[in-house]
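User: My instructor asked us to take a sequence, write out its structure as tokens, and then describe one feature of it. I'm not sure where to start. Here is the sequence I was given:
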Amino acid sequence: MKLAAAADGGDDDDDDVVDAGGVYIMSGPRNVTVSDGGTARLDCDVDGFPDNISVHWVFETGVVASTTPLEETRHRYRVDLHTASLTVVNVSTEDAGTYTCAAYNGLGASAAAGAYLNVTCTL
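Assistant: Let's start with the prediction itself. The structure tokens for your sequence are:
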């Protein structure tokens, strides 16, 4: 996560910026492929003003990890509290699918961006 900056102080040519009225996803996660048993990392560069941003990572229909301490984080999912990146350890084929980074700071709507995690198996 970046430190808070004025909403109009950014580069107007940045096509990756998602505006959500107080929270921005400066660069969303990218699709990634990992081997079964490996570790996957999905990055989500979040900025906003004020900078009290909560980030939730959603897989399928539920939150799997969060920067909010009160949220229960599933065993193999970890969120870096400084960067909002999601790490999935000991990946299995059941982890394949779309992961969404959702950010909110109490002002306006939340911002969200997703990416697909593909898991390959060795036969």
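For the description part of your assignment, you could build on this observation: Residues 1-14 have pLDDT under 50 and may be disordered. Try explaining in your own words what that tells you about the chain.
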